[in-house]
Records
---
Amino acid sequence: MLAELFAVLAPVLIAAGIGYGWVRSGHQYPTDFIARLVLNIGTPCLVLSTLSRAELEMSAFSQMALACVLVTSSMGLVGWLLSRLFGLDWKVLVPAYLFPNSGNMGLPMALFAFGESGLALAVAFFLVLSVGHFSIGMLLSGAEGSLKGLLLNPIMISLALVLPVLFLDLELPRWLANTVDLLGGMTIPLMLITLGVSLASIRVQHLGNGLLLGLLRILCGAALGWLIGWAICLQPLAHAVLVLQSSMPVAVFNYLFAVRAGRSPEQVASLVLCSTLLAFALIPLLLAWWMPALR
């Protein structure tokens, strides 16, 4: 079991460690350029390549979509309440609680822990969350200031293109499928390396709040995922995937948005760092509970 858990977590930890070590060794890292490359090219291709291969029944997708909306809305409320309690800017904390790292951490963990069926369900969660993240999330974070800009965002366009492929069981032309697979493949490594770079820039005074708020983000997410999955009677595998995705740490994209908008990027990076480090300690316990039960 320990070897299985390590195989799930090691790639994420190693990739982030490369970014951390790169900056700590004195090398330059063009964060703004990488952020734009990932947001405008890499992620749209990742969305197309991942979702065009997903096989989901409409009922399973609908249930997971509903669960995602309920969990996300509830976590937004938790983030707002905590921002009032700690005297923090809600435009920093609420997006961090609304949008977990369900893509570059959640998808591979769901695949390695629960197989192809788990991945398909995790993709459904990721799709619904992405619609909110790259519309409402960008607006809240200040990364995009106009409705026209949101509608023309490459990620939103890719989501609109992939919906007919997903629901009508269509296939992308081979040349296009190969292209988006190639370009989408750079996204997760660059996001994780950028995560490591952001960790290296965090000031010590941010770590106290970061640890507490990061811990609350994971625990509240797992609790709400379990409660909502139980309330809407999800099947065991779907329930496990929902809890896993809901308990992911703060998404790297929140940091990238904060960098682009110039809105407390170090504070957001602290949330990303602390919640990610805590996730490496807590998510193995979660998987150790679910994985044997599903066999």
---
Amino acid sequence: MTQTKRKKEINITWSHCKSVTPHKLLVKCKYCSHTYWGGVARMKHHLAGTKENVIACTSVLDDVREMFLKLLENKKKNKRSKSGRLF
């Protein structure tokens, strides 16, 4: 994954949560106001409703949930394809 694409994904996530100052890794969901440590990585799972180390957001819009599910799914596929390559 290129650096530009990674930044774009982070920007998408930041539009659905906000940082709780002064801690950069403490983020608050804009939909349900839950606060999590772990930055946007955990917030993506919260918004997607995967329940991986977070409670699923009950107030997120369905299209936003689907977007984050696809984003996480693509990330997992890319990780698997990279690990299968022999150098």
